[in-house]
Design a protein that fits this description.
Number of strands: 26
Strand content: over 45%
Oligomer: single chain
Radius of gyration: 22 Å
Strand order of the largest sheet: 1-23-22-21-20
Distance between the termini: 54 Å
Shape: globular
Order of helices and strands: HEEEEEEEEHEEEEEHEEEEEEEEHEEEEE
Largest sheet: 5 strands, mixed
Length: about 350
């Protein structure tokens, strides 16, 4: 009997040691909630083609260039239109077409990688005067750095995400373009691709916690997401990397043109990120590029939102009633916004209580 007991115990121990390697971030989540769409008062009339959305405190900001301006601002509590800002041009107070940015602590920081421009809009000033001009913080020049996204840690410190020295993903630098730290190897750091191909295949979405120096970066066309901290002594600290499916690309160089084309069987993966003080919300799909060609609903949208804590641990997931292209989180009202396309082809903002 003792011998039989030992065999049973040993077999149980061995079976408990077997671990299933996840093929997708979806496999990491066991708790799923279905969400129903709320009634929204946000008017579609003031919306162009949405290319991104973010929330901060009581405002919802859309990246939707039209009518010569780049952004639309709404009061998220009352869901009322405030106005459009970000006049396109090269004059005083004007910004280049294609600026992206991050909103936090009542500031909207924008950057333009072609010129190294980093500037900041004050949200309260915009509410009082929608034509308020941005403050230029700097124009960075960092050799061997190609940034997909830049976020202001504060008014004098900045975090760039993309590629540095064709090997590293993050760079911390100051207003004098002095590199203070860099780190976290890019997924293809050992490949023979040139610096432009590596940059193009490591573009993604960068977000920052509103109260801590915690950051998250997801790579386009992949299931790769990294969580990092900026320490008190200005060092980049990797908290966790979840890299399950690297993007697969065909690289092209013709004359001075450099491009990367995703493989048809490449997963689309992370589409957009939104953050709160406690969690990271990731719009995600397991669809592939080839699905995108056959799926009439367009595979670059998804109705699945994965929720991580800032340590990179899976918490829960949400299934939305509609597929959306971008997401934003309003912590004050516990509301998740999504950008969707209507049957007539126009864009609309919908919301969910979480």
């Amino acid at each position: 009997m003792k011998f039989l007991y030992l065999i049973i115990l040993l077999s149980c121990t061995l079976s408990s040691c077997k671990r299933t390697v996840p093929n997708s971030p979806v496999d990491l989540f066991s708790i799923t909630h279905k969400l129903s769409e709320l009634k929204s008062n946000i008017s579609d009339d003031s919306i162009g083609v949405i290319e991104g959305m973010q929330c901060d405190d009581s405002v919802l900001l859309l990246l939707d260039y039209h009518l010569g301006k780049s952004f639309t601002l709404f009061d998220s509590r009352q869901e009322k239109y405030i106005g459009r800002f970000g006049l396109i041009g090269q004059g005083p107070g004007e910004i280049p077409l294609g600026c992206n940015g991050n909103i936090a602590k009542r500031k909207f920081d924008i950057f333009y990688d072609q010129t190294g421009l980093i500037a900041a809009y004050n949200i309260d000033s915009l509410i009082l005067n929608i034509d308020a001009k941005p403050e230029v913080l700097m124009k960075y020049r960092i050799p061997e750095a190609l940034f997909s996204k830049v976020i202001a840690v504060n008014d004098t410190l900045f975090l760039g995400a993309g590629t540095y020295k064709s090997k590293y993903q993050f760079v911390l630098f100051d207003r004098n373009s002095k590199v203070l730290d860099y780190g976290v190897e890019i997924f293809n750091s050992q490949d023979d691709d040139n610096m432009y191909h590596k940059y193009l295949s490591n573009q993604g979405t960068l977000r920052k916690s509103s109260i801590r120096n915690q950051y998250v970066y997801s790579i386009n066309n992949s299931s790769n997401i990294d969580f990092i901290n900026i320490t008190s002594d200005n060092q980049i600290e990797l908290v966790k990397s979840i890299r399950l499916k690297n993007p697969q690309y065909k690289v092209i160089t013709k004359g001075g043109l450099h491009a990367v084309i995703p493989d048809e069987n490449n997963g689309i993966g992370y589409i957009d990120l939104a953050v709160s003080d406690k969690y990271v919300y990731a719009l995600y799909t397991d669809h592939t590029i080839v699905d995108k060609k056959t799926d009439k609903s367009n595979a670059i949208s998804s109705n699945l939102v994965l929720v991580f804590d800032w340590e990179g641990n899976p918490v829960k997931s949400y299934v939305l009633s509609k597929a959306v292209y971008f997401i934003a989180l309003d912590e004050c009202s516990n509301k998740l916004y999504g950008a969707t396309i209507k049957e007539d082809g126009g864009w609309s903002v919908i919301s969910y209580a979480i």
